[in-house]
Design goal:
With about 260 residues, the chain is of the alpha+beta class. The protein is built from two helices and twelve strands; from the N terminus they run ααββββββββββββ. The protein has helices spanning about 1-20, 25-100, and strands at about 110-120, 125-130, 145, 150-160, 165, 175-180, 185-190, 195-200, 215, 230, 240, 250. A six-stranded antiparallel barrel has the order 1-2-5-4-3-12. Helix 1 (about 1-20) crosses helix 2. The radius of gyration is 46 Å and the shape is rod-shaped.
Length: about 260
């Protein structure tokens, strides 16, 4: 290869000598067909390592750029996934709130504010007295709630200036309820303790668990639909409002059709 390189290097010298000393165009034309390709081949041969190194450097640079771009795209993708998760959580929470908001769809417009005067618990019975009575338009069967519309009991006796309310924990309490956000119905029964129990669900395959919220159902025709009752603490017991936690309540009024306003 060395000899070939040396020989090819002499060809341009001979070519230049002929052009200067003996300018014969036929010889020059013939030599040009030999010198130019040989010089090009020699140049390619000589510069091959440089070109290989240059191509390798270019490939490394391009690979580095691709890696940097991939890292940036991955970072953007991770951020997009995080944003999507946040949106999914917000959508789920919104659906949950929409389900729970049906507890106020039938909220009466007309109510009577009353104060709790006394509560009585004995032999499984749990009632309390409020300072509103017949002169205020109260009648037996009216529903009593807390100021934030949690079910607090049903009026069972009415005098002129006060009324007696049966609490949800009373042993005689038995009300129709519904699982929030579903069409699963059941009955909640008081037992004299602070935790009434669920004894029946309309869907035999429904599995009651802790955290399930219950609202009133009007399937019995006694209670308005959609008042928050309580939250299940396990597969049977329900956490509800007790008279000891009440100081002021709302009494829901009937209209002339015996319906809640």
């Amino acid at each position: 290869m060395i000899k070939a390189v040396c020989a090819s290097a002499l060809l341009p010298v001979i070519f230049i000598y002929i052009m200067i000393a003996k300018p014969d165009y036929k010889i020059m034309n013939a030599l040009s067909h030999v010198v130019v390709p040989v010089a090009q081949a020699v140049g390619d041969l000589v510069t091959w390592p440089i070109r290989v190194v240059g191509d390798a450097i270019g490939g490394v640079t391009e690979l580095s750029n691709l890696r940097a771009e991939n890292e940036e795209l991955r970072a953007r993708l991770d951020k997009a996934l995080i944003d999507k998760n946040v949106c999914d959580l917000a959508i789920a929470e919104n659906k949950k709130l929409n389900h729970e908001l049906n507890i106020v769809n039938s909220q009466p417009r007309d109510t009577i504010v009353a104060d709790v005067m006394h509560d009585n618990s004995a032999l499984g019975h749990n009632t309390y007295i409020i300072n509103r009575g017949a002169k205020d338009g109260l009648v037996s069967g009216m529903v009593v709630t807390s100021t934030d519309m949690m079910l607090a009991g049903i009026i069972i006796d009415v005098a002129e200036n006060f009324a007696r309310v049966r609490a949800l924990t009373d042993a005689d309490t038995n009300i129709a309820v519904r699982v929030v956000g579903s069409e699963v119905y059941g009955f909640m029964t008081g037992n004299g303790s602070s935790r009434p129990t669920m004894g029946f669900f309309s869907d035999p395959e429904f599995q009651a668990t802790k955290g399930i919220k219950l609202i009133t159902s009007n399937i019995s025709g006694i209670l308005p639909d959609g008042i928050m009752v309580g939250e299940m603490t396990d597969d049977m017991d329900v956490k509800v409002l007790t008279p000891s936690k009440l100081s002021r309540v709302l009494v829901l009024k009937f209209d002339e059709k015996n319906e809640y306003k």
